[in-house]
Structures are given as structure tokens and as C-alpha cells.
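HUMAN: You are asked to prepare a plain-text protein record giving the amino acid sequence and the C-alpha cells, both parts labelled.

ASSISTANT:
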Amino acid sequence: MSDVALSDNQARQNQPLDSIWHNGKEYRKGYTTGSCATAAAKVAALMVLRQQVIDQISIVTPSGITLSLNVEQPLIEGQQATAAIRKDGGDDVDATHGMLIFARVTLTEQREITLCGGEGVGRVTRKGIGLPVGSSAINRTPRQTIEAAVREVIGPLRGATIEIFAPEGEERAKKTYNGRLGILGGISIIGTTGIVTPMSEESWKRSLALELEMKRAAGEDRVILVPGNHGERFVRDHLGLDSQRVVTMSNFVGYMLQETVRLGFRQVLLVGHPGKLVKVAAGIFHTHSHIADGRMETLVAHLALMGAPHALLVEVNQCDTTEAAMELIAEQGWQGVYTRIAERIGERIAEMMRFSVNPPQCDAILFSFDNQVLGSSRPLDQILEALR
């Protein structure tokens, strides 16, 4: 039987998207925008050649998994055909989940295959993400799989132009990091394996590291790492530093610091609320609560080393939130602990980077939710001057 029209039983056999288990719960895998674009291009090419509508198509992903996917909105117009595949991220729902990824294939006599992005596919406007400025945001692996799938269909003697488009792409892209990476006007066609693994942090970490790469490619050798949006606003509005130097690190402190070493940054500043950064003072470089906590223990240890009264140590230890502990610390006048913690963060980072040949100068600034500087690893004016 053809790889196009498959029985339900065969479809199940050719779509072995097994689940994974995380914290006692089962999660379903999905497939990437790159897999959708590849399948859409392949079926569009087949429809042109056969001059018949096809409702299902199979592809082999770069990871070796065969997917059998339903085709939506198939249309044949002479030597041109259009088809769409609906993105399914499994249980790892993201901004592109459920949207249609289209391919339009037109046969030519030039024997070459050309590929471009159309409506809703972003365009690269800055260096540093591995694609030429001005090109469509179709990453290398999907580009290769799309062209290979069409070549397999049309053979060596024909050529084709392929346009990948996504009508919802521009709106959906507002919920992604594309704008910060300099990808404007739509989504990216991505995926190195073709399969989305739920609960995997790798794609998230990689998207954050791409922003570092982009800034380094632009010639920047100083960077400010923040856990999230609050940190970015504080840097811009209260430290007076250039927000273009800010990169979000989320919970991946250690990973992003390692990336700054790899990319050759000269100076790195961590800016954040003690609720996140106090963990780094304890040597915890992944700050999500499911990895480790230790916030109160770290505060208690440093307060004790400063000679704080036992009653305060007991009260802080019993707090459920960092904010509650900070109120007690402020009431009893022990705010100096934040400078001590910031200094310890610097020491911990230096320990982590001790085998690096050229480690960057790393500093830390802690701030409160009412946007006051609580402490810094070096005198604040020295840190800020080095970053201006």
C-alpha cells in the first residue's frame, strides 16, 4: 500500500508517539512546526504529480520516528498545490499548538528546489541565530527535511518552489521569544528531531541561549541576566542600564552562566529578587522549586554568621515565603544580610567557573519588590560604571 493512504491500524503503527512519565503523570508527545511543514510540502508535491487530493501523508522525522498525519485544506491548481498540517505539541502546549502550517508547491523545469517563508513565517533581522539576516525563519534541519521530502517525490529531473506559510503566525508569534531574537512578522519553523517531548527543558533553555548568541554576534561582551520581566524592568527603570543588554535566564542560572563562558562574554551581572537568587548563594544553580529550595536555610545561615539573635533565626526559618522573611529582617534591622548574600553569590559563581580559562567578571544585585537595591556583590557604583 502507498505511504499516502493508510488504514487506521497502519496509521497507529506508523505514529509511535509514546508517552513519557514525569512526577507520576503520563504526558503525550507531539510534533514540531518543522514536521508539519515537511509533511505539508511532501503532500502538496504528491498532489501536483498525481493531480488528486490526498487526505493523509507519512514522513520520517530526523529522529527516525514515522508520523502519519491528516491533511487539511488540500487544493490543486494546475502545476501548483497547497496543503496544511495542524501542529500538535502533545501535552507540551506552546504558542503554535493547534495552528495550521501550510505549504504551497509549484513544479518548475529548472531542476532546483527553492524554499521560502510566506505569510506568518518570521523573517530574520539580526545576526546570531544561525540564519542569514533577511532570510525566512526556517531553521536548518526543517529546511533540509522539507527539501529532501519534495525531492523524493518529484525526482532528480524536476524543480520546485516551496512556500511555507501560516496565516495565524504573526499573531501567535507575539507569545514567543521571536521578537527578542530579532525574528519579526511571524513564527519560526523549527525542530531538530521533529518530535516535541513534553516537560523537556532543553528547547526552552536553547531559546534563551540563542538570545545570548545574538548579542555576542552583535559585538556585545557584557550582559545582564535576570530571572524574568520584573528584573528587566528594574534594570531599565531603576538602575539606568541599557535594557538591550538584558537576557532572561529563567531558572537556568548555571546553564546560562556556562553559555556566557562558551560565548566569551567579559562581564556578567545577575539581577533579581532574593526569592530566586538567594538559592545561588547556596550553590543551587537551577532555581526551580522542584529541583531544590533552601531559601530559608540560606538566609538563616548568613544571619547567624552575622550574629543575628536566635529568636530572629527561628522566626525566619518558620517563614513560608521570602517576602515574609524579608519583613522580619527589615523590622529588626538586619538588611546587611543581602550584601553578604550577594557577595556569596559571586563566590559561588567563581567556584563554578574555576576551571575556565577566561571566566567573565560576575556580579550580583538583589532588589526588593518595591524596587529598592538590597545588596550587591561589589559597591553598586563600580558595577554600574562597568556596564555603562
